[in-house]
């Protein structure tokens, strides 16, 4: 069985508040080989890890992320919404996550959340921080904003990009090649085995999202994907271990 990257979606977000350091740390404990996170920008240009453009759902406050300074965002409670046990868990910076995984055999999928809020200079800032931390080989930049990914590729041809999309695309591997992307990150219902195979023939990997049902995980593996984004990295790790064990028994 080929190795499949176990990408913890927003960290171990089934058991911890998403996009927090405790979620990222727990993901590694549960067997994740990669972490996916969402990046936005504070009013003073810092890169912060939060999914929604507004703070209502996970930030314990009103207003837009873009309107608050980094120091203010760091005072907010990003844990209580999930469970009282996580009260006071702060919104982390991208640098804090880099510090956790730098030098480890962990893939870091950074999603640029710049489709609704057009953060000026986000691409340049992210690449600057990646370079400062020597994370070029560990990071993959993804986004639903494909124009932003093209901009990233023009600034930093050596940093991998991956195209996020919800609906089925015609020959997505050709589209990815045209944009010089090294990965396709489709919604799980937009995955087709023949397209996974065709993409890999062009050196383009397929990592579907967000796959939490064990049956769906099995289906994705049967389609030959190279990675899976999931809120349940431990479940995926267990399925992969069972598959490897069965394959080894079969060989014997």
UniProtKB/TrEMBL annotation:
SUPFAM superfamilies, per this entry? Answer: PLC-like phosphodiesterases
Q: Which InterPro entries match?
A: GP_PDE_dom (IPR030395), PLC-like_Pdiesterase_TIM-brl (IPR017946)
Domain of life of the organism in this record?
A: Bacteria
Where's the GP-PDE domain? 4-240
**One Pfam entry name:** GDPD
Q: What is this protein called?
A: Glycerophosphodiester phosphodiesterase
Q: List the source organism.
A: Paenibacillus cucumis
């Amino acid at each position: 069985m080929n190795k499949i990257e176990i990408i913890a979606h927003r960290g171990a977000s089934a058991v911890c508040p998403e996009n927090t350091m405790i979620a990222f740390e727990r993901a590694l404990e549960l067997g994740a080989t990669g972490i996916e996170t969402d990046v936005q920008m504070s009013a003073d240009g810092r890169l912060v890890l939060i999914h929604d453009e507004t703070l209502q759902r996970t930030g314990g406050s009103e207003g837009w992320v873009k309107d608050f300074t980094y120091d203010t965002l760091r005072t907010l409670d990003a844990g209580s919404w999930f469970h009282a046990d996580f009260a006071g868990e702060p919104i982390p910076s991208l640098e804090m996550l880099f510090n956790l995984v730098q030098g480890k055999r962990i893939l870091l999928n950074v999603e640029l959340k710049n489709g609704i809020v057009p953060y000026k200079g986000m691409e340049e800032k992210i690449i600057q921080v990646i370079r400062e931390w020597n994370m070029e080989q560990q990071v993959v930049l993804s986004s639903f904003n494909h124009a932003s990914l093209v901009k990233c590729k023009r600034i930093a041809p050596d940093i991998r990009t991956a195209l996020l999309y919800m609906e089925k695309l015609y020959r997505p591997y050709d589209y990815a090649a045209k944009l010089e992307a090294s990965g396709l990150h489709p919604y799980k219902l937009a995955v087709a085995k023949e397209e996974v195979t065709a993409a890999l023939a062009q050196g383009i990997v397929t990592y579907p999202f967000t796959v939490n049902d064990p049956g769906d995980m099995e289906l994705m593996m049967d389609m030959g994907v190279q990675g899976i984004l999931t809120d349940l990295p431990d479940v995926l790790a267990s399925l992969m271990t069972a598959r490897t064990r069965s394959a080894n028994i079969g060989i014997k």
